[in-house]
Fold:
Amino acid sequence: MSNRRAAPPRNPRPPYPAPPAPPLDDVDVAILALLVDDGRMSNAEIARRVGIPESTCAGRVRALLASQVVRGIHADVDLASVGRPMEAMIALQFTGHAREAMDAVRARIREVPGVVAAYHVAGHTDFLVHVCAASSDALRDLVLDHLTSLAGVAHAETSLIFERIEGGHPWDPAGARRARAAGRR
Structure:
């Protein structure tokens, strides 16, 4: 018997999709609606408003976090207030689209200082990268030093963001409740 370990699979993703999250019941939907409205609401207040014991509520919130239905509860920081008033979207186009190369880009973008979010998209552009910087010089350096230097980048286009227009939350708790009620009929 050999002491050599088997090589890890080339594609670490499972050959099948992850199982869907368990369906949300009315209590979960009510908890989500309260958290969307005020992520700082105490467990005691959520439990009181939903009409369940605090221990049950805490368990439900933990389960929503563990199942990634709730991906996080965080502060929405005004970037200009913390010295990062320059925001831009950087459109990146790549010469090739090998999975390994795209996985490497995804991993590298996570490490770039000033990246707010990145989106791997379909179409002419491969990635849209939302960045912030302290000045136009810092923005130029971020793009040149960290984004256009990525292996395989064929073209980068920077679009300054003049204004951010926030929408409502994309998940409509009232609509979810209506859909659930209609499904029970």
User: Anything to note?
Assistant: The chain has six helices and four strands. The chain has a mean pLDDT of 85. Helices lie at 26-37, 43-50, 54-66, 99-111, 136-147, 173-184. Residues 13 and 141 are 35 Å apart (CA to CA).
